[in-house]
């Protein structure tokens, strides 16, 4: 039998049983589509987090108060938790002259300018923060290079906030109120990336001394440490821990994080998670396969007479197997392509609806889903088809067409 | 006899196991059929007619005894070879036509050619000449359910003839037809026998129909109980040889 005739025969058989064929087509399409979407979700999440962390350079360490331990157990009794203070920072700066240090104090305040009022994060820091967080100055000047402890009533607005408060007007030199204190606007900055949830562009920066006074505290929320000239991070982290232990009477009560290492770990976890999620998608393919087998069985049984006839007309078992498998492959192939189309369509659509969380289908996932669909189709059609092909013609012909 | 018989069954038996009991579908049948014969196989249902037909048509194999088709011993042949022989040597006509409902008359007719791998061009030519011969040219593109019973059976006969086999096996070909369509179909089959010299084996339980054949076989309980052409063929087992 010619290949073109074989395809034509299979096509006719499929279109003749339209209801059953479309059901099978739908099952395969849904399975392929779900594999694609699940992969896209996993991959999208990975890229999202990667982008979130990307603005923190590879040479950055983050110090936060308290000891985050993964070994379990309660902290030893009497080990009081001490804040990280500006004195600590000054001490570290003296001990490690070659690194950059940027303190961070975070609060939430009512920002008012004229009749406009917004609730926004206020970040107390120093000029160094511009370097560590790759902020770009859009207008004016950055925070003044004053001693960290000095409270100066000046601020630098994020571009988003500046737009909200001043619209088209220039904010430079204007006064705004943070809670009940007045601050003069020195400049406007822009940050390329967002930081897990809130956009830096929607916040404003004030000198760390002002922030400590504003929120009446001594404690830093974070201390960013930027290593200079390709200095390896791990020894630096150990040195910092050692110095902080020394400052805090032998207690190690700070935690040092390496965002870059975290990102790598996170990326690994997400990749694994994506695989797991794809596994779930594969189960739907399996379910589709079983449905396919079931329908193939019904189809083969309903068509025993036809199969018997083909045998009587001189078709060997191999040819009958080939015909039935062609049908299955045609069906799963079409279903797979339909699934791909719908999957890519939905992902594109979600890109329009949620531009902030772009889903992405890795090309390997599309190929794997299609190959899986074809494989499943072949595998699950094989059993009933082989059985039908082996059926003795005499028995098959008793059935009626 | 110098001429090789088209069909030669020697002590052919076929057993079926039904509900734990062995039933002799065919019990040591000896049968010789020469090229160009027209014979009718008659007998009540369950007498082994269909088993014999399946055996002759290579859809089944004897459990014991031998079957030679056109001089070739069938017993040891594999499934592939049997399928090829079936395509080349045997045409089937069934009581219930067995047309594929989704295919048009012409497509049904061309099915053996498609399976045999003929080119579409050669198929179209063969198909057109067959349709013409069967007076079905106007019905070529109708689906089976749009055809009358007689027309359907004519399509089925055309399909059986597509590859010009020497042997035509007709199993109750008029069983599902009214008497007039039945007559037409019988005339068609008989003209094929007379004009094309095709060997025609007709299975029926209709005595009048069977009487039209030149040679009549009667079967009961899987055995051949009488054979009007036995003198030229084989002696039916279980009967005293004619004195």
How would you describe this structure to a colleague?
The complex is a heterodimer of chains A (401) and B (243). Chain A is of the alpha+beta class. Chain A folds into two domains: 181 residues, no CATH class; 171 residues, no CATH class. Chain A has a six-stranded mixed barrel with strand order 2-3-10-5-7-6. A two-stranded antiparallel sheet of chain A has the order 8-9. In chain A, β2 and β3 form a beta hairpin. In chain A, α1 crosses α10, α2 packs across α10 and α8 runs parallel beside α11. Chain A is elongated. The model of chain A has no long low-confidence stretch (mean pLDDT 83). In chain B, α3 packs parallel to α5 and α5 runs parallel beside α6. Chain B is built from seven helices and ten strands. Chain B is globular, with a radius of gyration of 18 Å. Chain B has one domain: P-loop containing nucleotide triphosphate hydrolases (Rossmann fold), CATH 3.40.50. The C terminus of chain B is likely disordered. In chain B, the strands form two sheets. Chain B has a six-stranded mixed β-sheet with strand order 6-7-8-3-9-10, sandwiched between helices. Chain B has a four-stranded antiparallel β-sheet with strand order 2-1-4-5, covered by helices on one side. Chain B is an alpha/beta fold. Helix content of chain B is 33%, strand content 26%. Chains A and B meet through α1, α9, α10 and α12 of A and α2 and α3 of B.
Give the helices and strands, then pairings:
The complex is a heterodimer of chains A (401) and B (243).
Chain A: H1 3-16, H2 18-54, E1 60-65, H3 86-95, E2 100-113, E3 116-125, H4 128-132, E4 136-140, E5 154-158, H5 159-166, E6 175-178, E7 181-190, E8 194-195, E9 198-199, E10 204-207, H6 208-214, E11 222-226, H7 233-247, E12 254-257, H8 259-302, H9 304-312, H10 317-353, H11 363-390, H12 393-398
Parallel strand pairs in A: 3-10, 5-7
Antiparallel strand pairs in A: 1-11, 1-12, 2-3, 2-6, 2-11, 4-7, 5-10, 6-7, 8-9
Helix pairs in contact in A: 1-10, 2-8, 2-10, 2-11, 3-7, 8-11, 10-11
Chain B: E1 7-18, E2 21-33, E3 38-42, H1 49-56, E4 64-69, E5 72-73, H2 79-89, E6 90-93, H3 105-115, H4 120-133, H5 149-161, E7 167-171, H6 179-196, E8 199-203, H7 207-211, E9 215-220, E10 223-227
